[in-house]
Design goal:
Strand content: 25-35%
CATH architecture of the domain at 5-92 and 167-250: 3-Layer(aba) Sandwich
Helix content: 25-40%
Low-confidence stretches: none
Order of helices and strands: EEEHEEHEEHHEHEHEEEHH
Structural class: alpha/beta
Bound molecules: adenosine-5'-diphosphate, magnesium ion
CATH class of the domain at 5-92 and 167-250: Alpha Beta
Number of strands: 12
Strand order of the largest sheet: 6-9-10-3-11-12
CATH superfamily of the domain at 5-92 and 167-250: P-loop containing nucleotide triphosphate hydrolases
Distance between the termini: 48 Å
């Protein structure tokens, strides 16, 4: 089977009665890398959280389909089983669950009963991916995200990505807080995932990450929707000129959404 397709259509989201997303349209297919860029407070993280089913985010209009199946009707764990993966801007700590246990159960939840990944195969795969990402081996037995440094959390998210091999991943600010060496390692991991069976939405405030991961499509979010789409050259122009030219072109004065500070 060729890769999956995630279709986000006219998505409207409210948080505590306040409109945050105002009609997001995006289609991500297996084999494609998409970047969503935009200034702070324009709804990028809200998009990621809404697609993954964060309870605080109320969908008031629109749809999200994975290979034609209604994602919004699925529970959060069903979304993961269906092949969606979300790396969060602020990954949470899970006490009492080791990294290794979490990875194994995540992999197995996507396989048929009786077809669990053999332990040796799992260990081999985890070892080689940890080497690839230059992650210390003792991280496998530590509790998930507990006491992980910012950089360790991000590397670990990419380890999860490489182990779980989702159909579609949404990576929110996977580059934030990384030094240049960590950024290179993380990018290498993401690039290794490239295949017809994998589609990726990379949310980033900075163009920096896109020096290492070349997106096929670039989208700019303002006022809780996608206001401009293009190819990699769009990211280059944003790097050189910032976002003001888009605001001028579209007559946007305030690009943010939600409550103002
Ligand atoms: N969990 C939340 N609770 C309350 N308001 C939120 C929450 N998440 C986002 N918002 C609101 O949505 C707006 C957009 O935030 P966000 O999606 O994080 O933007 P971005 O990721 O583009 O910086 C914020 O300004 C805030 O008002
Ligand atoms: Mg954000």
């Amino acid at each position: 089977m060729a890769g999956s397709t995630l279709e986000i259509k006219d998505l409207h989201v409210e948080i505590e009665g306040e409109k945050i997303l105002n009609g997001v349209n995006l289609t991500i297919k297996g084999g494609e890398f998409h970047a969503v860029m935009g200034p702070n407070g324009t709804g990028k993280s809200t998009l990621a959280s809404a697609v993954m089913g964060h309870p605080k985010y109320e969908i008031t209009q629109g749809s999200v389909l994975l290979d034609g199946e209604d994602v919004l009707e699925m529970e959060v764990d069903e979304r993961a089983q269906a092949g969606l993966f979300l790396a969060m801007q602020y990954p949470s700590e899970i006490s009492g669950v080791t990294n290794s246990d979490f990875l194994r159960s995540s992999i197995n939840s996507r396989r048929e009963e009786g077809d669990e990944i053999p332990l040796m195969e799992f260990i081999k795969k985890m070892d080689s991916n940890m080497d690839e990402l230059e992650i210390d081996k003792n991280m496998a037995q530590r509790y998930l995200n507990e006491g992980f440094s910012g950089g360790e959390k991000k590397r670990n998210e990419i380890l999860q990505l490489m182990m779980i091999e989702p159909a579609i991943a949404i990576l929110d600010e996977i580059d934030s807080g990384l030094d240049i060496d960590a950024l290179k390692v993380v990018s290498k991991g993401i690039n290794q995932m490239r295949s017809d069976d994998f589609g990726c939405l990379i949310i980033t405030h900075y163009q920096r990450l896109l020096d290492y991961i070349t997106p096929d499509h670039v989208h700019v979010m303002m006022q809780g929707r996608v206001v401009k789409s293009g190819g990699p050259e769009l990211a280059q122009r944003l790097e050189a000129e910032g976002y003001d030219w888009i605001k001028e072109e579209l007559g946007i004065e305030d690009e943010t959404v939600g409550q103002k500070a």
